[in-house]
Amino acid sequence: MITKMTDDYGRGGYGGAPQPAGQPQVPLCPRHPDRMAFVRCQRCERPTCQECQRPAPVGIQCADCVAQAQAAAPRVRQAARQAGRPVITFTLIGICVAVFVMNGALGGYLNSTFAYRPSLGESEPWLFLTAAFLHSGWPHLLMNMFALFLLGSALEPALKGWRYIALYLLAALGGSVAVLVFADAADPYSWSWPVVGASGAVFGLFGAYFVVLRRIGADTTGVLVLLGINLAYGFLVPMISWQAHVGGLLVGAILALAYTHRPHRRGVPQPSRTSLAVPATVIMTVALVAITVLRYSLV
Fold this sequence. Notes:
This protein has about 300 residues and is mainly alpha-helical. It has helices at about 65-80, 85-105, 110-115, 120, 125-130, 140-160, 160-180, 190, 200-215, 220-235, 240-260, 275-295; strands at about 40, 45-50, 55, 60.
């Protein structure tokens, strides 16, 4: 008599050859049915023998999932090439550069008027976003625009249109909100110090890029190292707003989880066609506004 086996390699199946009834079910490797496999792949959850195991950033993956992820990477690059130039990213860079040049021509008027200060945010709420298009000098501008170009060129084809714009702007808003949350209202220096720069939005793109790479099963070690260096830079170097970096990073990562969500699909993540994208954007906006109102109510 032969025990009933599943017809695929789903969560309950062991794969391999049928086993006699009455004997304990031993997990077998689907690719090598004659070998026991007590380790499961972190992606598909199939049992995998030692020969088929591949180390991953977290746990073990099977050879089939690794091959699928490697095949997905060229499709991501091909999709980016087919999408053409990242128009939204170039537009954001153009706005920041134009504002910087205009600010210089006006003797720093824009920075003094539209920089974000926790002390002014309640009466002038537009400062939460205008600060993201201002920069304190050429090195500051060039560093942020270079990061925006690299990350935006990869993310814009994946997120597309309004999702990409919403993630960028909400990450910038999240950076300003984080500055407010950590500011000390009793300290005039902390409460009134002007904050400018696209760093919060750029860190939001960092968080989103990490999520996208995880979705396709790509190696995220390099991104984590680069992200760690940039976060440490904000904590160690004076006059850098680490609060904006952390706030933007969290907002970008959370939104990317919703924007790239597609149940029961592996490979290249695409913008979610489910009802998650719009509600996630609304909920994040409401949450940031609520945190801001609550913070000012406690002053």
